[in-house]
Amino acid sequence: MDERGDRGGETEDEEGTVMDRKTTPDVVVVGSVAFDSVQTPKAAHEKLLGGSASYTSVASALFARTGVVGVVGEDFPQDYFDIFDRAGVDVQGLQREKGKTFHWSGVYEDNMNNRRTNCTDLNVFADFNPVIPEAYRTSPFLCLENIAPALQAHVLDQMQKPKFTVLDTMDLWINTTREDLMNVIARVDMLTVNEHEARHLTGKGSLLKAAKKILDMGPTYALIKKGEHGAFLMSKDDILIVPAWPLVEVVDPTGAGDTFAGGLIGTLAALGEVTRDNLHRALVNGTVTAAYTCEAFSVDGLRHITRAQLDERAEAFRRMMP
Amino acid sequence: MDERGDRGGETEDEEGTVMDRKTTPDVVVVGSVAFDSVQTPKAAHEKLLGGSASYTSVASALFARTGVVGVVGEDFPQDYFDIFDRAGVDVQGLQREKGKTFHWSGVYEDNMNNRRTNCTDLNVFADFNPVIPEAYRTSPFLCLENIAPALQAHVLDQMQKPKFTVLDTMDLWINTTREDLMNVIARVDMLTVNEHEARHLTGKGSLLKAAKKILDMGPTYALIKKGEHGAFLMSKDDILIVPAWPLVEVVDPTGAGDTFAGGLIGTLAALGEVTRDNLHRALVNGTVTAAYTCEAFSVDGLRHITRAQLDERAEAFRRMMP
After folding, report:
1. Residues from A in contact with B at Cβ < 8 Å
2. Is there a contact between B232 and A248 if contact means CB atoms under 8 Å apart?
3. What ipTM was assigned to the predicted interfaces of this complex?
Protein backbone atom coordinates (compact mmCIF):
# COMPACT_ATOMS: atom_id res chain seq x y z
CA MET A 1 0.00 0.00 0.00
CA ASP A 2 2.96 2.31 0.48
CA GLU A 3 3.30 4.05 -2.84
CA ARG A 4 5.32 7.03 -1.70
CA GLY A 5 8.10 5.72 -3.91
CA ASP A 6 9.80 8.22 -6.12
CA ARG A 7 11.09 10.86 -3.75
CA GLY A 8 14.47 12.38 -3.48
CA GLY A 9 15.14 13.86 -6.90
CA GLU A 10 15.83 17.26 -5.44
CA THR A 11 16.03 16.33 -1.80
CA GLU A 12 16.32 19.26 0.54
CA ASP A 13 17.49 17.34 3.56
CA GLU A 14 19.55 14.29 4.21
CA GLU A 15 16.57 12.06 4.69
CA GLY A 16 15.46 12.41 1.12
CA THR A 17 11.77 12.52 1.99
CA VAL A 18 10.85 15.61 0.01
CA MET A 19 9.30 15.48 -3.43
CA ASP A 20 10.67 17.09 -6.54
CA ARG A 21 8.87 20.45 -6.83
CA LYS A 22 7.53 19.37 -10.19
CA THR A 23 6.12 16.07 -8.93
CA THR A 24 2.37 16.02 -8.56
CA PRO A 25 1.41 14.81 -5.09
CA ASP A 26 -1.17 12.04 -4.71
CA VAL A 27 -2.95 14.15 -2.13
CA VAL A 28 -3.28 17.91 -1.72
CA VAL A 29 -4.38 19.19 1.68
CA VAL A 30 -5.63 22.76 2.09
CA GLY A 31 -6.37 24.29 5.48
CA SER A 32 -4.95 26.02 8.51
CA VAL A 33 -1.38 25.78 9.78
CA ALA A 34 -1.17 27.24 13.25
CA PHE A 35 0.49 27.60 16.58
CA ASP A 36 -1.51 25.69 19.20
CA SER A 37 -1.17 26.45 22.88
CA VAL A 38 -2.79 23.55 24.66
CA GLN A 39 -3.49 22.89 28.31
CA THR A 40 -4.68 19.52 29.57
CA PRO A 41 -5.18 18.36 33.16
CA LYS A 42 -1.64 16.95 33.10
CA ALA A 43 0.43 19.30 30.96
CA ALA A 44 0.58 22.59 29.08
CA HIS A 45 2.51 23.47 25.94
CA GLU A 46 2.93 26.77 24.09
CA LYS A 47 2.91 27.32 20.35
CA LEU A 48 3.05 23.74 19.18
CA LEU A 49 2.71 22.99 15.49
CA GLY A 50 -1.06 22.75 14.94
CA GLY A 51 -3.83 23.54 12.49
CA SER A 52 -6.07 21.20 10.53
CA ALA A 53 -3.83 21.03 7.45
CA SER A 54 -0.82 20.09 9.57
CA TYR A 55 -2.52 17.07 11.11
CA THR A 56 -4.20 16.00 7.88
CA SER A 57 -1.10 16.29 5.69
CA VAL A 58 1.28 14.58 8.14
CA ALA A 59 -1.21 11.68 8.52
CA SER A 60 -1.81 11.44 4.78
CA ALA A 61 1.94 11.39 4.09
CA LEU A 62 2.21 8.13 6.05
CA PHE A 63 0.44 6.51 3.09
CA ALA A 64 0.83 8.68 -0.01
CA ARG A 65 2.77 11.61 -1.47
CA THR A 66 1.18 14.65 0.08
CA GLY A 67 1.46 18.40 -0.42
CA VAL A 68 0.10 21.02 1.95
CA VAL A 69 -1.38 24.41 1.07
CA GLY A 70 -1.68 26.97 3.83
CA VAL A 71 -0.31 30.23 5.16
CA VAL A 72 2.13 31.02 7.97
CA GLY A 73 3.66 34.20 9.31
CA GLU A 74 7.22 35.41 9.55
CA ASP A 75 7.42 33.90 13.04
CA PHE A 76 6.93 30.35 11.75
CA PRO A 77 10.16 28.58 12.67
CA GLN A 78 12.35 26.48 10.42
CA ASP A 79 11.94 23.63 12.91
CA TYR A 80 8.29 23.38 11.97
CA PHE A 81 9.04 23.40 8.25
CA ASP A 82 11.44 20.58 9.07
CA ILE A 83 8.65 18.58 10.73
CA PHE A 84 6.71 18.63 7.45
CA ASP A 85 9.86 17.74 5.51
CA ARG A 86 10.71 14.79 7.68
CA ALA A 87 7.12 13.58 7.54
CA GLY A 88 7.37 13.64 3.76
CA VAL A 89 4.94 16.51 3.27
CA ASP A 90 5.77 18.86 0.41
CA VAL A 91 5.54 22.48 1.58
CA GLN A 92 5.78 24.48 -1.63
CA GLY A 93 2.12 25.35 -1.13
CA LEU A 94 2.80 26.73 2.33
CA GLN A 95 2.81 30.51 1.76
CA ARG A 96 4.81 32.70 4.13
CA GLU A 97 3.26 36.15 4.60
CA LYS A 98 4.15 39.27 6.54
CA GLY A 99 2.68 39.12 10.02
CA LYS A 100 2.12 36.48 12.63
CA THR A 101 1.06 32.85 12.31
CA PHE A 102 -2.51 31.88 13.27
CA HIS A 103 -2.54 31.16 17.02
CA TRP A 104 -5.12 29.02 18.80
CA SER A 105 -5.15 28.42 22.51
CA GLY A 106 -7.39 26.05 24.44
CA VAL A 107 -7.90 24.14 27.66
CA TYR A 108 -9.23 20.58 28.02
CA GLU A 109 -11.40 19.71 30.99
CA ASP A 110 -10.87 16.70 33.19
CA ASN A 111 -12.53 14.10 30.99
CA MET A 112 -10.89 15.48 27.82
CA ASN A 113 -14.27 15.64 26.10
CA ASN A 114 -14.90 19.32 26.74
CA ARG A 115 -12.54 22.01 25.61
CA ARG A 116 -12.59 25.75 26.14
CA THR A 117 -11.01 28.08 23.61
CA ASN A 118 -8.99 30.89 25.17
CA CYS A 119 -7.96 32.68 22.03
CA THR A 120 -8.22 32.43 18.26
CA ASP A 121 -5.83 34.99 16.76
CA LEU A 122 -6.26 34.51 13.02
CA ASN A 123 -3.36 36.84 12.09
CA VAL A 124 -2.14 36.02 8.53
CA PHE A 125 -4.84 33.32 8.27
CA ALA A 126 -7.49 36.08 8.19
CA ASP A 127 -6.35 37.05 4.67
CA PHE A 128 -5.51 33.55 3.46
CA ASN A 129 -5.88 33.30 -0.29
CA PRO A 130 -4.99 29.73 -1.21
CA VAL A 131 -2.84 29.56 -4.33
CA ILE A 132 -2.43 26.02 -5.60
CA PRO A 133 1.10 25.40 -6.98
CA GLU A 134 1.22 24.38 -10.62
CA ALA A 135 2.41 20.86 -9.81
CA TYR A 136 -0.51 20.31 -7.42
CA ARG A 137 -3.30 21.14 -9.82
CA THR A 138 -3.55 17.71 -11.38
CA SER A 139 -3.45 15.92 -8.04
CA PRO A 140 -6.17 13.22 -7.93
CA PHE A 141 -7.04 13.47 -4.23
CA LEU A 142 -7.93 16.73 -2.54
CA CYS A 143 -8.72 17.38 1.11
CA LEU A 144 -10.34 20.73 1.79
CA GLU A 145 -9.98 21.26 5.50
CA ASN A 146 -12.06 23.77 7.39
CA ILE A 147 -11.65 27.25 5.82
CA ALA A 148 -14.26 29.69 4.45
CA PRO A 149 -16.46 27.89 1.88
CA ALA A 150 -15.72 30.58 -0.73
CA LEU A 151 -12.02 29.82 -0.38
CA GLN A 152 -12.71 26.09 -0.63
CA ALA A 153 -14.57 26.81 -3.89
CA HIS A 154 -11.65 28.94 -5.05
CA VAL A 155 -9.33 25.96 -4.52
CA LEU A 156 -11.66 23.69 -6.48
CA ASP A 157 -11.60 26.25 -9.32
CA GLN A 158 -7.82 25.96 -9.50
CA MET A 159 -7.77 22.16 -9.56
CA GLN A 160 -8.12 20.11 -12.72
CA LYS A 161 -10.96 17.76 -11.82
CA PRO A 162 -9.60 15.83 -8.86
CA LYS A 163 -10.80 12.24 -8.76
CA PHE A 164 -11.91 12.48 -5.15
CA THR A 165 -12.45 15.49 -2.90
CA VAL A 166 -13.09 15.47 0.84
CA LEU A 167 -14.54 18.56 2.50
CA ASP A 168 -14.54 19.54 6.16
CA THR A 169 -16.34 22.51 7.70
CA MET A 170 -17.39 23.99 11.04
CA ASP A 171 -20.24 25.75 12.87
CA LEU A 172 -18.99 29.22 11.95
CA TRP A 173 -19.60 28.63 8.23
CA ILE A 174 -22.90 26.84 8.83
CA ASN A 175 -24.05 29.96 10.69
CA THR A 176 -22.53 32.74 8.61
CA THR A 177 -22.04 31.61 5.00
CA ARG A 178 -24.56 28.84 4.56
CA GLU A 179 -25.21 29.51 0.87
CA ASP A 180 -21.49 29.40 -0.01
CA LEU A 181 -21.19 26.25 2.07
CA MET A 182 -24.09 24.50 0.32
CA ASN A 183 -22.56 25.41 -3.04
CA VAL A 184 -19.20 23.88 -2.21
CA ILE A 185 -20.74 20.81 -0.53
CA ALA A 186 -22.52 20.10 -3.82
CA ARG A 187 -19.16 19.96 -5.61
CA VAL A 188 -17.34 17.38 -3.44
CA ASP A 189 -17.39 13.59 -3.08
CA MET A 190 -17.31 13.34 0.69
CA LEU A 191 -18.35 15.68 3.48
CA THR A 192 -16.74 14.96 6.83
CA VAL A 193 -18.26 16.46 9.96
CA ASN A 194 -18.53 15.61 13.62
CA GLU A 195 -21.80 14.64 15.32
CA HIS A 196 -22.62 18.14 16.43
CA GLU A 197 -21.89 19.70 13.04
CA ALA A 198 -23.94 17.02 11.27
CA ARG A 199 -26.96 17.85 13.42
CA HIS A 200 -26.41 21.60 13.13
CA LEU A 201 -26.01 21.50 9.35
CA THR A 202 -29.07 19.34 8.71
CA GLY A 203 -31.41 20.08 11.60
CA LYS A 204 -31.78 16.34 12.19
CA GLY A 205 -31.33 14.83 15.64
CA SER A 206 -30.80 11.29 14.34
CA LEU A 207 -27.28 10.99 12.96
CA LEU A 208 -28.43 8.54 10.32
CA LYS A 209 -31.07 10.99 9.12
CA ALA A 210 -28.48 13.77 9.20
CA ALA A 211 -26.11 11.69 7.07
CA LYS A 212 -28.88 10.93 4.58
CA LYS A 213 -29.69 14.62 4.33
CA ILE A 214 -26.03 15.40 3.64
CA LEU A 215 -26.16 12.97 0.71
CA ASP A 216 -29.14 14.95 -0.61
CA MET A 217 -26.86 18.00 -0.68
CA GLY A 218 -24.67 16.36 -3.29
CA PRO A 219 -21.78 14.31 -1.88
CA THR A 220 -21.60 10.59 -2.57
CA TYR A 221 -20.37 9.97 0.99
CA ALA A 222 -21.10 11.45 4.40
CA LEU A 223 -18.49 10.70 7.05
CA ILE A 224 -19.74 11.32 10.58
CA LYS A 225 -16.93 11.43 13.14
CA LYS A 226 -17.98 10.55 16.69
CA GLY A 227 -14.66 11.01 18.50
CA GLU A 228 -14.11 8.34 21.13
CA HIS A 229 -17.11 6.47 19.72
CA GLY A 230 -15.71 5.95 16.24
CA ALA A 231 -17.24 6.98 12.95
CA PHE A 232 -19.57 5.90 10.20
CA LEU A 233 -19.62 6.49 6.50
CA MET A 234 -22.92 6.65 4.67
CA SER A 235 -23.55 6.38 0.96
CA LYS A 236 -26.84 6.01 -0.90
CA ASP A 237 -27.36 2.31 -0.26
CA ASP A 238 -24.68 1.44 2.21
CA ILE A 239 -23.17 2.20 5.57
CA LEU A 240 -19.71 1.41 6.90
CA ILE A 241 -19.00 1.57 10.62
CA VAL A 242 -15.79 1.73 12.55
CA PRO A 243 -15.42 1.98 16.34
CA ALA A 244 -12.58 4.00 17.86
CA TRP A 245 -9.24 2.46 18.76
CA PRO A 246 -9.38 1.60 22.47
CA LEU A 247 -7.17 4.26 24.06
CA VAL A 248 -6.21 3.73 27.67
CA GLU A 249 -5.30 7.37 28.08
CA VAL A 250 -5.73 10.45 25.91
CA VAL A 251 -2.80 12.86 26.14
CA ASP A 252 -4.17 15.52 23.76
CA PRO A 253 -7.11 14.97 21.39
CA THR A 254 -6.41 18.14 19.36
CA GLY A 255 -6.35 17.33 15.66
CA ALA A 256 -7.70 13.79 15.99
CA GLY A 257 -10.53 14.42 13.52
CA ASP A 258 -8.18 16.08 11.02
CA THR A 259 -5.78 13.18 11.40
CA PHE A 260 -8.63 10.77 10.72
CA ALA A 261 -9.32 12.58 7.43
CA GLY A 262 -5.60 12.45 6.57
CA GLY A 263 -5.25 8.74 7.25
CA LEU A 264 -8.41 8.15 5.24
CA ILE A 265 -7.52 10.16 2.14
CA GLY A 266 -3.87 9.05 2.17
CA THR A 267 -4.98 5.43 2.19
CA LEU A 268 -7.46 5.94 -0.64
CA ALA A 269 -4.79 7.74 -2.67
CA ALA A 270 -2.28 4.94 -2.06
CA LEU A 271 -4.83 2.33 -3.10
CA GLY A 272 -5.88 4.44 -6.09
CA GLU A 273 -9.56 3.52 -6.24
CA VAL A 274 -12.47 4.36 -3.98
CA THR A 275 -14.05 0.94 -3.51
CA ARG A 276 -15.97 -0.45 -0.54
CA ASP A 277 -12.98 -2.52 0.59
CA ASN A 278 -10.63 0.42 0.19
CA LEU A 279 -12.98 2.67 2.14
CA HIS A 280 -12.93 0.11 4.96
CA ARG A 281 -9.13 0.10 4.91
CA ALA A 282 -9.17 3.89 4.86
CA LEU A 283 -11.50 4.02 7.88
CA VAL A 284 -9.20 1.66 9.77
CA ASN A 285 -6.11 3.74 8.96
CA GLY A 286 -7.99 6.95 9.78
CA THR A 287 -8.89 5.49 13.17
CA VAL A 288 -5.42 4.22 13.93
CA THR A 289 -3.64 7.44 12.90
CA ALA A 290 -6.14 9.47 14.94
CA ALA A 291 -5.30 7.32 17.96
CA TYR A 292 -1.59 8.05 17.53
CA THR A 293 -2.41 11.76 17.46
CA CYS A 294 -4.31 11.45 20.75
CA GLU A 295 -1.30 9.79 22.39
CA ALA A 296 0.91 12.89 22.18
CA PHE A 297 0.79 16.65 21.75
CA SER A 298 0.87 18.28 18.31
CA VAL A 299 1.72 15.87 15.48
CA ASP A 300 4.28 14.12 17.68
CA GLY A 301 2.27 10.89 17.84
CA LEU A 302 2.51 10.61 14.04
CA ARG A 303 6.14 11.65 13.68
CA HIS A 304 7.79 8.78 15.46
CA ILE A 305 5.89 5.76 14.22
CA THR A 306 7.06 3.49 11.47
CA ARG A 307 4.80 2.23 8.77
CA ALA A 308 5.27 -1.29 10.13
CA GLN A 309 4.04 -0.22 13.58
CA LEU A 310 1.05 1.43 12.03
CA ASP A 311 0.15 -1.59 9.92
CA GLU A 312 0.50 -3.81 12.96
CA ARG A 313 -1.92 -1.66 14.93
CA ALA A 314 -4.34 -1.59 12.00
CA GLU A 315 -4.29 -5.37 11.84
CA ALA A 316 -4.78 -5.68 15.61
CA PHE A 317 -7.71 -3.27 15.30
CA ARG A 318 -9.34 -5.30 12.53
CA ARG A 319 -9.02 -8.40 14.69
CA MET A 320 -10.92 -6.71 17.52
CA MET A 321 -14.00 -6.44 15.32
CA PRO A 322 -16.29 -9.34 14.41
CA MET B 1 -26.40 -22.34 15.14
CA ASP B 2 -30.06 -22.93 15.95
CA GLU B 3 -29.96 -25.80 18.39
CA ARG B 4 -33.35 -25.33 20.00
CA GLY B 5 -34.25 -28.71 18.59
CA ASP B 6 -36.05 -31.08 20.90
CA ARG B 7 -39.11 -29.17 22.01
CA GLY B 8 -42.68 -30.24 22.14
CA GLY B 9 -42.69 -33.43 24.22
CA GLU B 10 -45.24 -32.05 26.61
CA THR B 11 -46.30 -29.01 24.64
CA GLU B 12 -48.66 -26.72 26.42
CA ASP B 13 -49.85 -24.84 23.38
CA GLU B 14 -50.46 -25.59 19.77
CA GLU B 15 -47.20 -24.11 18.63
CA GLY B 16 -45.14 -26.73 20.38
CA THR B 17 -42.48 -24.30 21.48
CA VAL B 18 -42.35 -25.30 25.14
CA MET B 19 -39.78 -27.67 26.54
CA ASP B 20 -40.53 -30.84 28.40
CA ARG B 21 -40.44 -29.89 32.09
CA LYS B 22 -37.67 -32.40 32.62
CA THR B 23 -35.49 -31.05 29.84
CA THR B 24 -32.50 -29.07 31.01
CA PRO B 25 -32.38 -25.71 29.23
CA ASP B 26 -29.16 -24.57 27.57
CA VAL B 27 -29.53 -21.22 29.30
CA VAL B 28 -31.08 -20.26 32.61
CA VAL B 29 -31.94 -16.59 33.14
CA VAL B 30 -32.65 -15.24 36.61
CA GLY B 31 -33.90 -11.70 37.21
CA SER B 32 -36.92 -9.45 37.33
CA VAL B 33 -40.18 -9.93 35.49
CA ALA B 34 -42.22 -6.77 35.66
CA PHE B 35 -44.93 -4.51 34.40
CA ASP B 36 -43.36 -1.53 32.65
CA SER B 37 -45.26 1.67 32.09
CA VAL B 38 -43.25 3.63 29.57
CA GLN B 39 -43.67 7.08 28.14
CA THR B 40 -41.62 8.33 25.20
CA PRO B 41 -41.96 11.61 23.28
CA LYS B 42 -44.21 9.81 20.78
CA ALA B 43 -46.22 7.27 22.78
CA ALA B 44 -47.15 5.92 26.20
CA HIS B 45 -48.04 2.39 27.24
CA GLU B 46 -49.19 0.97 30.56
CA LYS B 47 -48.12 -2.29 32.17
CA LEU B 48 -46.21 -3.82 29.30
CA LEU B 49 -44.30 -7.03 29.86
CA GLY B 50 -40.91 -5.87 31.15
CA GLY B 51 -38.12 -6.72 33.57
CA SER B 52 -34.55 -7.75 32.87
CA ALA B 53 -35.24 -11.49 32.85
CA SER B 54 -38.04 -11.08 30.31
CA TYR B 55 -35.82 -9.31 27.78
CA THR B 56 -32.84 -11.57 28.40
CA SER B 57 -34.74 -14.85 28.20
CA VAL B 58 -36.79 -13.94 25.12
CA ALA B 59 -33.59 -12.85 23.33
CA SER B 60 -31.68 -15.93 24.43
CA ALA B 61 -34.50 -18.22 23.27
CA LEU B 62 -33.96 -17.00 19.71
CA PHE B 63 -30.75 -19.04 19.77
CA ALA B 64 -30.94 -21.71 22.49
CA ARG B 65 -33.35 -23.50 24.82
CA THR B 66 -33.93 -21.05 27.63
CA GLY B 67 -35.66 -21.15 30.99
CA VAL B 68 -36.54 -18.13 33.10
CA VAL B 69 -36.52 -17.83 36.89
CA GLY B 70 -38.39 -14.94 38.44
CA VAL B 71 -41.45 -13.97 40.44
CA VAL B 72 -44.78 -12.47 39.42
CA GLY B 73 -47.95 -11.57 41.31
CA GLU B 74 -51.50 -12.79 41.03
CA ASP B 75 -52.21 -9.97 38.59
CA PHE B 76 -49.77 -11.32 35.99
CA PRO B 77 -51.96 -12.16 33.00
CA GLN B 78 -52.05 -15.40 31.05
CA ASP B 79 -51.29 -13.34 27.92
CA TYR B 80 -47.85 -12.59 29.29
CA PHE B 81 -47.17 -16.24 30.16
CA ASP B 82 -48.18 -16.91 26.56
CA ILE B 83 -45.56 -14.45 25.28
CA PHE B 84 -42.84 -16.49 26.99
CA ASP B 85 -44.37 -19.72 25.68
CA ARG B 86 -44.50 -18.54 22.10
CA ALA B 87 -40.96 -17.20 22.34
CA GLY B 88 -39.86 -20.67 23.44
CA VAL B 89 -38.98 -19.66 27.00
CA ASP B 90 -39.70 -22.28 29.63
CA VAL B 91 -41.55 -20.70 32.58
CA GLN B 92 -41.51 -23.42 35.21
CA GLY B 93 -39.06 -21.22 37.14
CA LEU B 94 -41.45 -18.28 37.08
CA GLN B 95 -42.95 -18.33 40.58
CA ARG B 96 -46.41 -16.85 41.12
CA GLU B 97 -46.83 -15.32 44.57
CA LYS B 98 -49.64 -13.61 46.43
CA GLY B 99 -49.62 -9.89 45.78
CA LYS B 100 -48.86 -7.66 42.85
CA THR B 101 -46.25 -7.91 40.13
CA PHE B 102 -43.23 -5.59 40.26
CA HIS B 103 -44.18 -2.34 38.51
CA TRP B 104 -41.74 0.12 37.01
CA SER B 105 -42.74 3.35 35.36
CA GLY B 106 -40.50 5.78 33.49
CA VAL B 107 -40.37 8.62 31.01
CA TYR B 108 -37.81 9.11 28.23
CA GLU B 109 -36.69 12.60 27.33
CA ASP B 110 -36.56 13.96 23.80
CA ASN B 111 -33.26 12.42 22.74
CA MET B 112 -34.09 9.04 24.33
CA ASN B 113 -30.79 9.05 26.19
CA ASN B 114 -32.13 10.32 29.49
CA ARG B 115 -34.87 8.60 31.36
CA ARG B 116 -36.67 9.56 34.54
CA THR B 117 -38.15 6.90 36.81
CA ASN B 118 -41.61 7.74 38.10
CA CYS B 119 -42.17 4.70 40.27
CA THR B 120 -40.52 1.46 41.29
CA ASP B 121 -43.12 -0.64 43.14
CA LEU B 122 -41.24 -3.82 43.98
CA ASN B 123 -44.33 -5.65 45.30
CA VAL B 124 -43.71 -9.45 45.19
CA PHE B 125 -40.19 -8.83 43.85
CA ALA B 126 -39.22 -7.38 47.25
CA ASP B 127 -39.34 -10.87 48.75
CA PHE B 128 -38.04 -12.75 45.72
CA ASN B 129 -36.31 -15.94 46.74
CA PRO B 130 -35.14 -17.60 43.54
CA VAL B 131 -35.73 -21.35 43.56
CA ILE B 132 -34.06 -23.11 40.67
CA PRO B 133 -36.19 -25.97 39.27
CA GLU B 134 -34.55 -29.37 39.42
CA ALA B 135 -34.25 -29.62 35.63
CA TYR B 136 -32.45 -26.26 35.47
CA ARG B 137 -29.67 -27.05 37.92
CA THR B 138 -27.39 -28.74 35.43
CA SER B 139 -27.84 -26.05 32.81
CA PRO B 140 -24.45 -25.08 31.35
CA PHE B 141 -25.12 -21.37 30.77
CA LEU B 142 -26.43 -19.06 33.47
CA CYS B 143 -27.35 -15.39 33.24
CA LEU B 144 -27.75 -13.66 36.58
CA GLU B 145 -29.58 -10.46 35.81
CA ASN B 146 -29.65 -7.57 38.20
CA ILE B 147 -30.98 -8.70 41.61
CA ALA B 148 -29.45 -8.47 45.10
CA PRO B 149 -25.94 -9.98 45.05
CA ALA B 150 -26.82 -12.29 47.95
CA LEU B 151 -29.66 -13.74 45.86
CA GLN B 152 -27.34 -14.11 42.89
CA ALA B 153 -24.99 -16.08 45.16
CA HIS B 154 -27.95 -18.16 46.36
CA VAL B 155 -28.71 -19.07 42.74
CA LEU B 156 -25.09 -20.06 42.14
CA ASP B 157 -25.28 -22.29 45.23
CA GLN B 158 -28.22 -24.18 43.69
CA MET B 159 -26.54 -24.71 40.32
CA GLN B 160 -24.22 -27.61 39.55
CA LYS B 161 -21.18 -25.84 38.21
CA PRO B 162 -22.46 -24.04 35.14
CA LYS B 163 -19.89 -23.86 32.36
CA PHE B 164 -20.35 -20.13 31.89
CA THR B 165 -22.02 -17.54 34.07
CA VAL B 166 -22.80 -13.93 33.17
CA LEU B 167 -23.57 -11.43 35.93
CA ASP B 168 -25.28 -8.05 35.69
CA THR B 169 -25.65 -5.53 38.50
CA MET B 170 -26.63 -1.91 39.18
CA ASP B 171 -25.70 1.19 41.19
CA LEU B 172 -27.95 0.25 44.10
CA TRP B 173 -25.88 -2.86 44.91
CA ILE B 174 -22.58 -1.08 44.31
CA ASN B 175 -23.68 1.47 46.91
CA THR B 176 -25.44 -0.71 49.47
CA THR B 177 -24.08 -4.27 49.36
CA ARG B 178 -20.61 -3.89 47.96
CA GLU B 179 -19.09 -6.80 49.86
CA ASP B 180 -21.79 -9.24 48.73
CA LEU B 181 -21.36 -7.91 45.21
CA MET B 182 -17.59 -8.41 45.21
CA ASN B 183 -18.08 -11.96 46.48
CA VAL B 184 -20.45 -12.91 43.70
CA ILE B 185 -18.41 -11.10 41.01
CA ALA B 186 -15.48 -13.31 42.00
CA ARG B 187 -17.57 -16.41 41.21
CA VAL B 188 -18.65 -15.61 37.64
CA ASP B 189 -17.05 -15.75 34.20
CA MET B 190 -18.32 -12.45 32.82
CA LEU B 191 -19.48 -9.23 34.42
CA THR B 192 -21.67 -7.06 32.22
CA VAL B 193 -22.17 -3.42 33.15
CA ASN B 194 -22.84 -0.15 31.40
CA GLU B 195 -20.30 2.69 31.18
CA HIS B 196 -21.58 4.47 34.24
CA GLU B 197 -21.69 1.32 36.38
CA ALA B 198 -18.19 0.34 35.26
CA ARG B 199 -16.82 3.70 36.42
CA HIS B 200 -18.86 3.65 39.62
CA LEU B 201 -17.81 0.11 40.53
CA THR B 202 -14.11 0.63 39.88
CA GLY B 203 -13.53 4.34 40.50
CA LYS B 204 -11.75 4.55 37.15
CA GLY B 205 -12.65 7.24 34.62
CA SER B 206 -11.06 5.42 31.70
CA LEU B 207 -13.35 2.58 30.59
CA LEU B 208 -10.37 0.45 29.62
CA LYS B 209 -8.87 0.85 33.07
CA ALA B 210 -12.28 0.12 34.59
CA ALA B 211 -12.56 -3.08 32.55
CA LYS B 212 -9.07 -4.16 33.60
CA LYS B 213 -9.96 -3.56 37.23
CA ILE B 214 -13.08 -5.71 36.84
CA LEU B 215 -10.86 -8.55 35.61
CA ASP B 216 -8.84 -8.15 38.81
CA MET B 217 -12.05 -8.85 40.73
CA GLY B 218 -12.21 -12.36 39.29
CA PRO B 219 -14.16 -12.63 36.03
CA THR B 220 -12.42 -13.78 32.86
CA TYR B 221 -14.40 -11.24 30.83
CA ALA B 222 -15.65 -7.70 31.38
CA LEU B 223 -18.39 -6.61 28.99
CA ILE B 224 -18.87 -2.85 28.93
CA LYS B 225 -22.13 -1.81 27.28
CA LYS B 226 -22.12 1.70 25.82
CA GLY B 227 -25.71 1.89 24.52
CA GLU B 228 -25.87 3.65 21.16
CA HIS B 229 -22.07 3.51 20.99
CA GLY B 230 -21.78 -0.27 21.06
CA ALA B 231 -19.82 -2.39 23.50
CA PHE B 232 -16.46 -3.91 24.17
CA LEU B 233 -15.38 -7.12 25.83
CA MET B 234 -12.11 -7.24 27.67
CA SER B 235 -10.16 -10.30 28.77
CA LYS B 236 -6.64 -10.53 30.17
CA ASP B 237 -4.78 -10.18 26.87
CA ASP B 238 -7.49 -9.29 24.43
CA ILE B 239 -10.23 -6.89 23.56
CA LEU B 240 -13.19 -7.34 21.24
CA ILE B 241 -15.15 -4.33 20.03
CA VAL B 242 -18.55 -4.02 18.45
CA PRO B 243 -20.29 -0.80 17.41
CA ALA B 244 -24.06 -0.47 17.75
CA TRP B 245 -26.44 -1.35 14.95
CA PRO B 246 -27.24 1.91 13.12
CA LEU B 247 -30.80 2.66 14.23
CA VAL B 248 -32.63 5.38 12.33
CA GLU B 249 -35.15 5.79 15.11
CA VAL B 250 -35.40 4.45 18.65
CA VAL B 251 -38.98 3.64 19.68
CA ASP B 252 -38.20 2.44 23.22
CA PRO B 253 -34.70 1.59 24.49
CA THR B 254 -35.98 -0.13 27.66
CA GLY B 255 -34.37 -3.55 28.02
CA ALA B 256 -31.79 -3.09 25.25
CA GLY B 257 -28.89 -3.95 27.55
CA ASP B 258 -30.69 -7.00 28.94
CA THR B 259 -31.51 -8.09 25.40
CA PHE B 260 -27.84 -7.72 24.48
CA ALA B 261 -26.93 -10.11 27.31
CA GLY B 262 -29.61 -12.54 26.15
CA GLY B 263 -28.49 -12.55 22.54
CA LEU B 264 -24.94 -13.02 23.73
CA ILE B 265 -25.49 -15.92 26.12
CA GLY B 266 -28.00 -17.62 23.84
CA THR B 267 -25.47 -17.57 21.01
CA LEU B 268 -22.68 -18.91 23.20
CA ALA B 269 -24.97 -21.69 24.44
CA ALA B 270 -25.99 -22.62 20.90
CA LEU B 271 -22.37 -22.73 19.79
CA GLY B 272 -21.39 -24.63 22.92
CA GLU B 273 -17.90 -23.26 23.45
CA VAL B 274 -16.67 -19.84 24.56
CA THR B 275 -14.01 -19.16 21.94
CA ARG B 276 -12.84 -15.83 20.49
CA ASP B 277 -14.79 -16.41 17.26
CA ASN B 278 -17.89 -17.45 19.15
CA LEU B 279 -17.65 -14.40 21.40
CA HIS B 280 -17.53 -12.22 18.28
CA ARG B 281 -20.64 -13.96 16.95
CA ALA B 282 -22.27 -13.53 20.34
CA LEU B 283 -21.47 -9.80 20.36
CA VAL B 284 -22.98 -9.42 16.90
CA ASN B 285 -26.16 -11.26 17.89
CA GLY B 286 -26.32 -9.30 21.15
CA THR B 287 -26.12 -6.07 19.16
CA VAL B 288 -28.68 -7.10 16.58
CA THR B 289 -31.21 -8.41 19.11
CA ALA B 290 -30.79 -5.24 21.20
CA ALA B 291 -31.58 -3.19 18.09
CA TYR B 292 -34.82 -5.13 17.56
CA THR B 293 -35.76 -4.38 21.16
CA CYS B 294 -35.22 -0.64 20.56
CA GLU B 295 -37.52 -0.72 17.54
CA ALA B 296 -40.65 -1.52 19.57
CA PHE B 297 -42.09 -1.39 23.07
CA SER B 298 -41.67 -4.28 25.51
CA VAL B 299 -40.31 -7.47 23.93
CA ASP B 300 -42.40 -6.88 20.80
CA GLY B 301 -39.36 -6.23 18.61
CA LEU B 302 -38.11 -9.73 19.42
CA ARG B 303 -41.44 -11.55 19.14
CA HIS B 304 -42.14 -11.05 15.49
CA ILE B 305 -38.80 -11.66 13.86
CA THR B 306 -37.78 -14.91 12.25
CA ARG B 307 -34.41 -16.46 12.74
CA ALA B 308 -33.71 -15.89 9.04
CA GLN B 309 -34.37 -12.14 9.40
CA LEU B 310 -32.11 -12.01 12.40
CA ASP B 311 -29.29 -13.86 10.65
CA GLU B 312 -29.64 -11.56 7.66
CA ARG B 313 -29.29 -8.48 9.84
CA ALA B 314 -26.31 -10.01 11.64
CA GLU B 315 -24.61 -10.64 8.31
CA ALA B 316 -25.39 -7.11 7.09
CA PHE B 317 -23.94 -5.79 10.35
CA ARG B 318 -20.72 -7.77 9.95
CA ARG B 319 -20.36 -6.39 6.45
CA MET B 320 -20.54 -2.82 7.77
CA MET B 321 -17.36 -3.38 9.75
CA PRO B 322 -13.86 -3.52 8.25
Report:
1. 110-111, 205-206, 208-209, 226, 229-230, 232, 239-243, 246-249, 280-281, 283-284, 317-318, 320-322
2. no
3. 0.90
